[in-house]
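Dear colleagues,

As part of the handover before I leave the project, I'm documenting each prediction I ran so the next person doesn't have to rerun anything. This entry is a single chain, and its sequence is reproduced below.
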Amino acid sequence: MKGTIVKAAEKLIISKFGIEKWEEILEKSGYDIDHFFFIREDVDEEKVLNLVNNACEILHLSQLQLFDSFAEYWINKYMGEVYPNFKFDTAKEFINKISTIHKVMTENIPNAMPPNFDYNWINDNELIMTYHSKRGMIDLAVSLIKHIGFKYNEEIVVEKLNDKEIKVVFKS
């Protein structure tokens, strides 16, 4: 997994819970408390999952709560700071471009394997997204999509149908 994900989690945890909690999570996960994650570095998947599990335990959050906090931070703060060129007018436009964003952002980064989505539009307001990633982090994808709707003040209903499919209904 790319370091940008861990860097965003670090910034979120420090801003919301304090540096001491981040250092505790790092220590419990086998890192030095002053470990620095680089945005483009490859971080071992198991180590990232270990960080996630330890963060949940130390912060007293469920994985879904942690994913929701991360998604809110990523969509509303981190993405604009790190990837300022991606601007959209609507949630639908943003969601419809997720796979394109991933492709553009990672085409020159060795070993990048972001999730990919297939889009099946049922009608103008109803979409089934098929999630493709061996990481199995569809719950994080659901949280991120939900927070895209919040960012644009648009009512969307996001539902995980199974381990591969997400239903998105645009109400506004």
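The first strand starts at residue 116 and ends at 123. Helices lie at 3-17, 19-28, 45-59, 63-82, 91-96, 98-106, 138-151.

All the best with the project,
I.
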